[in-house]
Each structure stands twice: as structure tokens, then as C-alpha cells.
């Protein structure tokens, strides 16, 4: 039933021809929980990187970029996914923009992971030249490039690669405005599968270099064995984040391929909802990995909880590498 005329530039009409079933209610409820966990879980990550001087390094800035993308999933992507699932009637280009926005933040996560993998490779491959290569200007340039490419890839359908409709209003649905050839060839094959393959190759190279150095006694250099031991533990944690991302997103990407190459096959709605939920849930997984696998993250989380949330005094004796609100940069690489 169309809404009455309004002075608002965008009229929203809900499709009342479909009654929400139990699956829809479960899906929306689960999405709300995922959004809450993703936002509340990743805010402390960005907070920790900002406050802890020990985190003022290249890898942690890229992790903060990934956390920002995950926060955006909780704040923007999940609500938009729920809105799209309700099949509201809105202007076509507004619907298209909302769907493109969901792709933007997904792409930002992928490119942030790629930046982390490249950084880890350079760290173990060129340990002496690493500080010369990873200057502050280059770090911010890499972050800007990641988000610029994410916007370019995600907003590409706005420039014509879409299912154009002549009607001013449209029942909004992701597959009703976004073309599957864009999602399969451009978004998945070119900007998801290739970066994932590069990241896997980089981590294999990282572990090979570390294993070679450790088996050689770290070339006999003083402290080098400790350095590569720390890098090995950090690489394992970051590789786990990459693995969880791949496991979470590949099912939905594979379903998109099935829909494109075999349109006659109808994927059950619960499977599609499950794939979407799994992809969004990935944004809530990363903070758990940080807390469990990176000790300094766990320590900083507890300090933030104690000092800023529970409003208790800071501990009198605190290691210098864990000091909060200090302008000095402590190099823990």
C-alpha cells in the first residue's frame, strides 16, 4: 500500500504482501545481536591502538583500519541488510547506494587484511630496512589507498553496472539492483579471491622465512632468535584472522557464484540468511582473537575497562610499554 504523499524527498513503502515468518524473525534478531557485538567489540580495539603507545606501529594502524571497517559493519551494514530483507519500496538509486555501501566496508576489510599481510612479510623479509620503508607518510598513504579502492570497488554499480529500472520506486533487494556478474567477476574473483590468494602466499612465505631463520639459529645474531620467535607468534594470530575471514565470507561468495552460473537452482532462503549472518559475524570474531592471542591487547582492554568504564584509578606500577595517554612512541616491533 503506497504511503501518502509527503514533503520528504524519500518515501518508504513497506511490502505488506509478504508476512514475516519465523525464519525472518530469527534472522533479524541474530543480525541485531551480531551488530551489537561487532560494534562494541571493535570500539575497544581502536581505543586501545589510540591510547597504548606500544601500539603506535604499522601493523596496529592497519588492525585499527580493519576494526573501523568491522565497526561500520555493525553500525551500517547490518541495519542496511535488515532493511533490504524487509523489501521496502524506495527510490531505485537510493536502494542501489545502500547496497553498494555494504560492499564498500567488506572491501575495506579485505584490503586492510592485505595491508597487514604485506606489512608482516616486509617485517621478516627486510628487518633492517623495515623502519626505513614503513614511514608514517607511507602508512597513511597505504591506509588512504585501501579506503579509496574500497570506495571505488563498492560504488562501481552506481556508475552503470546495475540492474537499471525505469520505475521511480522499487522494492529494494540486493539482487534486484546489483548484477551478479559484478558480484562474481569483479567483487569476488578480482577483489576478494585474488587478494586472499596473495595473502595466503605472503603468510606461507612469512612462516617459511621465520622457520628458516630459527632453524639456522637466527644467523647467530644476538636477540635475533627472540625477534623471529615473536614474529612467529604474531604471524600465527594474524593468519588466524585471515582464516576466519575466508571461512566466514566464502560460503556467501560461493552461493553468489551458484546463483550466477546456475540461475535455475534456487538456494533455500535459510541458507542465504545463514551465509549473510556468517559473513557479518566475522566482524565480531576479530576482537576475541586479539584478546586471546595478543597479550598486550588483553592488558590494554583491562586497563580501559578499569580506568575509563569502571572509573577506577590506574595501577601505580605499570610497565612503560603499557602506559596510556603518553605521546611517546614505543617500538615493540
TrEMBL record:
**Highest taxon, organism lineage:** Eukaryota
Gene3D superfamilies from the entry? Rhodopsin 7-helix transmembrane proteins
Q: Which GO terms describe its cellular component?
A: plasma membrane
> Could you tell me which CDD domains the record lists for this protein?
7tmA_Adenosine_R_A3
Name of the protein described by the UniProt record: Adenosine receptor A3
Lipoprotein as UniProt keyword: yes
Q: Where in the cell is it found?
A: Cell membrane
Task: Give the G-protein coupled receptors family 1 profile domain ranges.
Answer: 41-290
Q: Mind listing the GO molecular function terms for this protein?
A: G protein-coupled adenosine receptor activity
Q: Where are the transmembrane segments?
A: 25-49, 61-84, 90-118, 139-162, 182-210, 238-261, 273-292
Q: What does this protein do?
A: Receptor for adenosine. The activity of this receptor is mediated by G proteins which inhibit adenylyl cyclase.
Does the record carry Cell division as a key word? no
In which organism is this protein found? Gallus gallus
Q: Which SMART domains match?
A: 7TM_GPCR_Srsx
Q: Which family does it belong to?
A: Belongs to the G-protein coupled receptor 1 family.
What's the short name of a Pfam family annotated to this entry?
7tm_1
Task: State the annotated membrane topology for this chain.
Answer: Multi-pass membrane protein
